[in-house]
Every structure is written in C-alpha cells, then in structure tokens.
Amino acid sequence: MNVFKILPVLATLGLGVSPAMAAGPSLVTVITAPEAQVQMMSLVLTLQVVKQGASAHILLCGPGGDLALDEAPASATAPQKPTGASPRDLMAKAMQAGVQIDVCAIYLPNKDLPVEALIEGVGVAKPDAMAAELMAADRVLSF
Q1: Other beta carbons within 10 Å of 10
Q2: Which of 126, 122, 124 shows the shortest CA–CA distance to 88?
Q3: What pLDDT was estimated at residue 24?
C-alpha cells in the first residue's frame, strides 16, 4: 500500500498524520528506567536507528522524565563509561539529530512542576497524539 495515496484520505477523516508516519521507518522509544546505564543504552540505540535512516520520538515517563528537567539529578548528568558522555549529553545529541522528545502528560503534574522546569526543546506529550504515533510506529522500544 502506498502511504502517499492514503494520506489525503486520512486528512479528510480528521486523522492527523505526523511526518514520521510518512517518511519511512519510525521508532518510538519509551524511557522509564531510573538507571543511567539503561537510559544511556536506550539513547545509544535510538541514535543508531536515526543514523540508519529512521525517524524517532522519545517519550520520557517516571524517572526517565527526570532527564528533561532543567535541574536534573546527578544520574542524568554524570559521565558514563566508556564514552564519558551522560544520558543528558546523548539526549541533547538526539534533539540535534531532529528527534522529538516529550515527557508523558502526567509527569509534570505528579512532580508538581510547571512546564518551565523542562529544558528547552522538550515538550509534553498529548495522549491522543502519542497513542496514534505508537500505533503507527514500525518499532516501539521500552526501557
């Protein structure tokens, strides 16, 4: 099925289509783990997928959301072996590569924080749009 033939049909039905859905392979990475090594590996794999031509979207929930805080915990900014980069460093690299990064919709309210607590470039996922993206993704990785 040619995706470009169905895009106008989806638009007339009021079903939004993200560029990731039309561009080729897509990945959604969900990061919930508090451990820096798990966060690092999820970001390394996501960056490798992007390097190989896929689009990606990262959803940060629970302790994973802490990566996006302006005042992030030390685990998010501490260098990890063997590269000396931190999870936050790799997240910045992902954003530079065009990866959309959002915290889940319930993250900030449950931390009692305003959206201004997030670093620039990180958004707040809308559940309906995120659900559609999860359904349309070629792969979903959860860490």
Answers
A1: 14
A2: 122
A3: 79
What is the value of pTM for the model shown? 0.83
Q: How many domains does the chain have?
A: 1
pLDDT digits 0-9 by tens, 74-112: 999 999 999 999 999 999 999 999 999 999 999 999 999
Q: Is residue 7 in a domain?
A: no
Is the Cβ–Cβ distance between 27 and 54 less than 8 Å?
yes
Mean predicted lDDT score pLDDT of the chain: 88
**To which H or E segment does residue 29 belong?**
strand 26-31
Q: How far is CA 33 from the centre of its chain?
A: 14
Residue found by looking up tokens 């449950």 in the block: 110
pLDDT at 5 over 80: no
- Cα 14 from Cα 42, distance rounded (Å): 33
Strand, coil or helix: 31: strand
Residue 3 in domain: no
Q: How far apart are CA 56 and CA 50, in angstroms?
A: 7
What range does the domain containing 41 cover?
Answer: 16-142
